[in-house]
Design brief:
The complex is a heterodimer of chains A (428) and B (443). Chain A is mainly beta. Chain A is 7% helix and 58% strand. In chain A, the strands form two sheets. A 14-stranded antiparallel barrel of chain A has the order 2-3-4-7-8-9-10-13-14-16-17-20-21-22. In chain A, strands 15-18-19 form a three-stranded antiparallel β-sheet, with no helix packed on it. In chain A, strand 21 and strand 22 form a beta hairpin. Chain A is elongated and about 75 Å long. The two termini of chain A are 13 Å apart. Chain B is mostly beta strands. Helices cover 14% and strands 38% of the residues of chain B. In chain B, strands 3, 4, 16, 18, 19, 20, 21, 22, 23, 24 and 26 form an eleven-stranded antiparallel β-sheet that branches. In chain B, strands 5, 6, 7, 8, 9, 10, 11, 12, 13, 14 and 15 form an eleven-stranded antiparallel β-sheet that branches. In chain B, strands 17-25 form a two-stranded antiparallel ribbon. The chains are: A mainly beta (428), B mainly beta (443). At the A-B interface, helix 1, strand 2, strand 3, strand 5 and strand 6 of A face helix 1, strand 1, strand 2, helix 2 and strand 3 of B.
Chain lengths: 428, 443
């Protein structure tokens, strides 16, 4: 069915890339609109909740991917993995996920469900040694509505602080990967990170309704991040191999255009006194270098185990936020994949599972918020579309010290469309 | 192939339509959001208090007969006399020649406004005023300092036991010669000195009630004029007996509206407050034994100055005040059951010359701020609380270019018709007598 299009390769490409780009731009414009894709109060901190689980296969395998290679789909964790694609194929991928977040404090609990776009990407070979991928995905999510009652300094009275946040960063990237030799590949991923974070706060004295304070802060982030990837295959007998993978990003800065409006509002008439009004003050956010390394063992193309370790130097992350301390995060991820050798439709089925443990990058009140997650999933193929489904369940935080415990469940579906655009017609 | 692409695009479009629900608000610990309190409370700001004396004020707008005597170890001796002019409604009754004169009395019904020991006889005298009771030039009311000439000998002297709660009436019998004279004029129906309203007023200009008992504190008041006659509690009655009736009947002379007022005289000699008679516009508390006063009858009020408010920026350049309350606590031992604290206080804007610049209005632009007497939950001690946020905001905004400040004062009616008083220690004598409570937000 791939072979009966009566046109040349060039026309093929332009015809098909057009609708793809349309969708790409559409999704860019949609993702840049601030949406609350989370309800976690932890998303107040830093750039929001970073979504690091990766594309479909990565997400099903505990977020591993540094040493994973596949010709069936894209791996967002290590750009060097692009060279595992079929040099004649084009892969287009997209995904959706539904999240169910449960939050629990010592005295309260709540839950929220939401569904969102995971990513949209495509990958292909530009030549037999040079591979490209472009895509877009949400990078972080900000969405919370919290209230705290704090003592007024110097008195037994209290005041209420109501904080509502929204926004999130998106990532648009282009990856280049090169096959240096049969077994050694390198890749570079250039990501443009952009998006807003908005926070609206109210302060009011308990039992006094003369005035309240209204504060609105708007952060507009943008910047470029470079990731460097390396993968090396150590072939073993019986179609087995071991892959070593490494990834690091260059440290850098995000531009942060910061606006603040703060005013004292007279409750009676609504008349306001402006306290602060600044627009587009240029600030910077430093993001540090992170390093990840992984190993994967592939046994006879039926069984795979992989382990990743990532050192996230979050302690060096700097965004003015006096509320919390960032600490270095150590991420340990394990994944496995099984493809039973059967015949027929079931032949395309791949089963996946994973574990993910993070020591945590947030430290609040001397409490580091670690997290643990389990994942499972499977994939199958119908005609040229691969379906990958996965589920993730994770726990983060604690209800101690008036903090929040978060239980997170995600169900995701990814679609990979494989097309052999570059294949020459065999029959004509 | 095209179909496949379309399916893919359709699915892609589906995925980018995201949704969410719930808008749960989470109450979480302060540790999560903030290490430093954004709102701060201070109550250690210095309030400088001084006593001011207002020259005179009107006492005639309340139609209340108030008189008595008050001796305060700090504020001196206050005498309140009350002037009342009487009138008839323009027509005198027809009296049968067979009727006979009985008596001329002042009938006074106690209205409950009484202070003092109600088991001991009190004595007052009623004098006939010999001078026209009229406003001073340019005035349209009577003032606390106004007085009018009287006869040397009282028309009557009365001892009474105050029974404010029993609504007892007090009858002050006036001399029979006077009563007989009036009776004759009315009975014979001849041209007389009292035929018309004006003639009567010119002939009988009024009376003044003068307290005689001066060995203890007391005061009483009677409603002199009220549009509803049932509440009328003081009048002049000419009693006579009709030949065919057993009961006496009477003809009333009622108080003239707005011609009822009290005159106060205060003797401060030998007390710490005597400097009020000699000092200037503003008497700092240091000159009055570290105390400041409010006193009815003499226009004594309290002025405050809070220099630090003009320098609130000392607390940080980025602050804004959210609330400000001034608490005043009466000096212990200066009040008692027989010398009650005023139930309410007024606040006025005033200038360097102690001129009244109008009521102090709250930030809403409408509410007139007053201070109501309240009692502390813990020790049941009385205090007054004033919301002075607007003062603080105004002072902060004008950056000390204005001398205008707040004056705390007894409400006008209390000032004119009571012996209310309030004595407050300054901050050097008591650490919480004046307490400015400020909440401010740091941004």
């Amino acid at each position: 069915m791939f072979y009966n299009l009566p046109c040349t390769m060039k026309i093929h490409l332009s015809k098909k890339i057009f609708p793809f780009l349309t969708v790409l731009f559409l999704s860019v414009s949609l993702t840049t609109n601030a949406q609350n894709n989370t309800i976690s109060p932890y998303s107040k901190l830093g750039l929001g909740e970073i979504d690091g689980s990766g594309f479909g296969r990565n997400a099903a395998m505990g977020g591993t991917g540094l040493a994973l290679r596949s010709n069936l789909g894209l791996n967002s964790i290590n750009p060097a993995s692009l060279t595992s694609l079929d040099s004649l194929a084009v892969i287009m991928e997209t995904g959706i996920h539904g999240d169910y977040t449960q939050l629990e404090t010592a005295s309260q609990s709540g839950a929220k469900a939401n569904a969102n776009f995971s990513y949209l990407a495509m990958g292909f070979a530009a030549s037999s040694r040079w591979f490209l991928s472009i895509g877009i995905n949400p990078y972080s999510s900000v969405g919370y509505h919290i209230q705290t009652t704090s003592p007024v300094s110097g008195s037994t009275n209290t005041y209420l602080n109501d904080i509502e946040g929204s926004g999130g960063l998106s990532c648009a990237y282009i990856s280049n990967a090169f096959k240096l030799s049969k077994n050694i590949s390198v890749g570079i991923k250039t990501s443009v990170l952009f998006g807003p974070k908005k926070e609206v706060q109210y302060y009011s004295l308990t039992g006094n309704d003369n005035f309240y304070i209204y504060k609105e802060e708007y952060f507009k982030f943008s910047g470029i991040r470079f990731d460097f990837g390396y993968q090396q295959i150590f072939p073993l007998a019986n179609k087995s191999n071991i892959v070593f993978g490494f990834n690091a990003n260059a440290p850098g800065y995000l531009k942060n255009k910061y606006s603040i409006k703060e005013s004292k509002v007279f409750t009676g008439s609504g008349s306001t006194t402006t306290l602060q009004d600044e627009e587009d003050v240029l600030k910077r956010v430093y993001f540090p270098a992170n390093f990840g390394t992984g190993l994967a063992f592939n046994f006879r193309e039926t069984f795979l185990v992989t382990a990743d370790y990532t050192f996230d130097q979050s302690s060096q992350f700097s965004l003015e936020d006096t509320y919390s301390d960032f600490v270095d995060n150590h991420i340990f991820a394990f994944g496995t994949e099984l493809q039973p050798k059967v015949k027929g439709f079931a032949k395309s089925f791949i089963y996946r599972g994973g574990l993910n443990y993070q020591t945590g990058y947030l430290q609040i009140d001397n409490q580091t918020l670690n997290s643990i997650g389990v994942t499972a999933g499977f994939g199958f193929q119908i005609r040229a579309i691969r379906f990958n489904l996965y589920a993730e369940h994770s726990w983060m935080g604690t209800t101690k010290n008036q903090l929040i415990k978060e239980r997170f469940t995600r169900l995701g579906l990814n679609l990979s469309l494989m097309d052999f655009w570059f294949q020459k017609r065999k029959f004509n | 192939m095209c179909k496949k692409i379309h399916v893919f695009l359709f699915l892609s479009l589906l995925t980018i339509v995201s949704c969410n629900d719930s808008s749960e608000v989470f109450n979480i610990g302060e540790e999560f959001t903030n290490n430093d309190s954004k709102i701060t409370y201070v109550d250690t700001i210095t309030v400088q208090a001084s006593t001011i004396l207002i020259d005179s004020f009107t006492t005639s707008n309340y139609n209340k007969v108030f008189f008595g005597y008050n001796n305060d170890p700090i504020l001196g001796k206050t005498y309140a006399e009350s002037y009342v002019a009487f009138e008839h409604d323009g027509s005198l009754p027809d009296i049968d020649t067979r009727s006979s004169f009985d008596s001329l009395v002042i009938f006074m019904k106690q209205n409950g406004d009484y202070l003092g020991d109600s088991t001991i006889f009190k004595e007052f005298s009623v004098y006939r005023v010999t001078e026209d009771i009229e406003y001073n030039d340019d005035a349209s009311a009577f003032y606390n300092i106004d007085s009018f000439a009287r006869e040397d000998v009282p028309l009557a002297t009365k001892q009474f036991i105050p029974r404010p709660l029993r609504n007892d009436s007090i009858i002050v019998k006036l001399p029979n010669e006077l009563g007989n004279q009036w009776y004759d004029w009315i009975e014979t129906n001849t041209d007389s000195l009292i035929d018309t309203k004006d003639e009567f007023l010119d002939y009988f200009k009024g009376v003044v009630f003068v307290p005689n008992t001066k060995n203890e504190n007391w005061s009483t008041s009677f409603n002199g004029f009220n549009s509803s006659s049932t509440n009328l509690q003081i009048e002049l009655r000419l009693y006579y007996s009709k030949h065919d009736e057993e009961e006496n009947t009477y003809f009333s002379f009622t108080p003239r509206e707005n011609y009822i007022f009290s005159h106060f005289s205060i003797d401060r000699s030998g007390t710490v407050s005597s400097v009020l008679d000699t000092e200037g516009l503003k008497i700092p508390s240091t000159l009055t034994d570290n105390k400041v006063f409010m006193q009815a009858g003499s226009g004594v009020g309290i002025k405050i100055e809070i220099p630090q408010v003009e320098y609130m920026y000392d607390f940080g350049s980025n602050i804004t005040v959210l609330d400000a309350k001034l608490i005043m606590r009466p000096s212990k031992g200066t009040y008692s059951l027989s010398s009650l604290l005023p139930s309410k206080l007024s606040v006025l804007w005033t200038d360097k010359m102690n001129r009244n610049l109008g009521d102090f209005i709250d930030v809403d632009g409408e509410t007139v701020i007053t201070g109501t007497k309240m009692f502390d939950d813990l020790d049941d001690e009385p205090y007054y609380s004033f919301s002075i946020l607007n003062f603080v905001l105004t002072k902060m905004a004008t950056e000390s270019t204005s001398y205008n400040t707040l004056m705390f004062y007894l409400p006008d009616e209390s000032n004119a018709t009571s012996f209310d008083k309030l004595i407050i220690d300054d901050q050097s004598a008591s650490n919480n007598s004046f307490e400015l409570q400020i909440y401010y937000y740091t941004y």
